[in-house]
Amino acid sequence: MSEYLRLESLGLAERGHTIVREINLSFAARRTLILGPNGAGKSTLLRLIHGLLKPSVGSVRWTEPLRQAMVFQRPIMLRTTVFKNVLYGLKLVRVGDGERERRAHEALERVGLAHLHGRAARVLSGGEQQRVALARAWALEPQLLFLDEPTASLDPASSREVERIIGEFADAGTRILMTTHNLGQARRLADEVVFIDEGRAVEQSPAADFFRQPRDARAAAFIREELL
Amino acid sequence: MDEISTSLGLAASLIAGADAKLYGIVGLSLRVSLSATLIACIAGMPIGAWLAVGRFAGRRVLIVLFNGMMGLPPVAVGLLIYLMLSRAGPLGSWGLLFTPGAMVIAQAVLVAPIVAALTRQVIADAWSEYREQLRSLGASRPRAAATLLWDGRFSLLTAGLAGFGRAIAEVGAVMIVGGNIDGATRVMTTTIALETSKGDLPLALALGFVLIALVLGINAVAYLLRGWAARRWG
C-alpha cells in the first residue's frame, strides 16, 4: 500500500519533560502496531497523530488525508442507550437522519451487540462498552482507526472479540494504527511494527521480520522479557 | 409551656384543615421560588458549563467570582434589586416593585451564581473524563458543553435543588423587594418573621413546619431520583 502519513522530527515536551522526541516515520501498512514498554510514549504518539495533542516540534504530514476515528483504552459512554451512543458520533458529522440510523444499526450488528441496542450503555460490562465504542467508530466509516491499548482492561474472551472486530475493520479497508504492550496481540494483528522506547521510535519493521529477528537491541530485550 | 402546646395544636389544625390563608402563602412561596429557580437554571447552567469547557481570557476570574457569589447576602441582593426597580431606578418603569415579579427577580439573582458554580463543578469533572473522546468525534466546545449538560442531568438536579433550597428559605431579599404585603407578596419566610414578632405563633409555627417538610421532602425525592438514575444509567 502507498504511504498515507509522514512524521517529521515530531516531538512533544511538557513542563520541561520530553515525552516524544525526534520521531521520523512514514506509514503505509494496513495494520501498524506500536509496541513498547509502559510509559514509552506510545499513547502520546497516537494522540499527536490524531490531533488530540499539539506537537512542540516537528509535524504530522498527511500524504493522503483520511477520515479518522479513535477507540480509547477506557470506553467513554454517554448516559443514554447503546444505540444513541452510536448515533451520537454520526450526529457530529453531516449524515442524514435515515442514513444515520441505518449505519448505527449496521455497526451494532458488526460488533455483535444489536440485541443490546436499547440498554443503558454505562451499565454494560467493560468488554461490551468497548464493543459499543468500536461500533461508534465503525458507524463513522473511518479510513484510519486509532486504537489505544483497546484490550488493556479486558478479560481474554472480550479481548478476542475486540481483536476480531479490529480484523473486520482492516478487512473492510480501514487502516489501523494501534498501541499495545501485548506481544501476542501484536503478533496476531500486525502487518508492521513500530517499537517505541523512551519517546523514540527505535525500530520500524514488517511484523514477520520484527518477531523473527528485531534489529534493535531494546526491542529484542522487550520481546525476551515479555516471553519469560 | 402551655402557650407553646396550644400554638402547636392550632398550627396542626391549620395544616390539617387546609386553611386558605396558610395555603395561599405556601402557594405563593412555591410559585415565586420555583420560577426564580427555573430562571436561575436556564441562565446559570449554560454559564457553568461554559466556565467548565470554554477557553477565554478571564475564565479563572469568573470562576472565583461565581464561587464567591454563592454566598451573597440576601438582604444586600434585595437592596440592590430594590434600587433597580424603585420608581427612580433604571428599571422603575417596569412597575415591578412590591410584586411577586420583583421577588422572582431577586431570588433568581441570588440563586443563579449557586447553580452556575455547582454546574461548573459537575461539568468540569465530566469534561476531564470525556474530553478526548468528544474531541476525537469532532465535537466543538459549545457542542461538548451541551452534551455534558445533558449527560450530567441527574447530577445537575442537585444543583437546581440547592438553588431552590436557598430561594425558598431566604427572607431578606423577598422582604425588601416584595414588601411583605398581606395577600399579595407575603411568603412563608416573611410571614414567619412577621407573625413571630407579633407574637402570633400558630400561623408562624404551621408555616415553619410546612417549610421544613417541603425542604426535607424535596431533598428526599432528589436523593431517590439520583439513586434510580445511577442504577438505570450508570
Low-confidence regions of chain B = none
**Helix vs. strand class of chain B:** mainly alpha
The N- and C-terminal alpha carbons of chain B lie at a distance of: 52 Å
Poorly predicted spans of chain A = none
Largest sheet: number of strands, sense, barrel closure of chain B: none
How big is the Rg of chain A?
18 Å
Could you name the CATH homologous superfamily of chain B?
A: MetI-like
Order of helices and strands of chain A: EEEHEEHHHEHEHEEHH
Textual characterization of the structure:
The complex is a heterodimer of chains A (228) and B (234). Chain A is an alpha/beta fold and 228 residues long. Chain A has a domain at 1-66 and 176-228: P-loop containing nucleotide triphosphate hydrolases (Rossmann fold), CATH 3.40.50. Helix content of chain A is 38%, strand content 26%. The radius of gyration of chain A is 18 Å and the shape is globular. The model of chain A has no long low-confidence stretch (mean pLDDT 95). Helix content of chain B is 80%, strand content 0%. Chain B has helices at residues 2-16, 20-53, 59-69, 74-85, 100-136, 141-151, 153-169, 172-178, 188-198, 201-233. The longest helix of chain B is centred in the middle third of the chain and has 37 residues, at 100-136. The model of chain B has no long low-confidence stretch (mean pLDDT 94). The chains are: A alpha/beta (228), B mainly alpha (234). Chain A binds chain B through residues 47, 50, 52, 68-70, 72, 76-80, 88-89, 92-93, 120-123, 136, 140, and chain B through 129-130, 132-133, 135-139, 143, 147, 151, 153-154, 229, 231-234.
Brief summary:
The complex is a heterodimer of chains A (228) and B (234). Chain A is 38% helix and 26% strand.
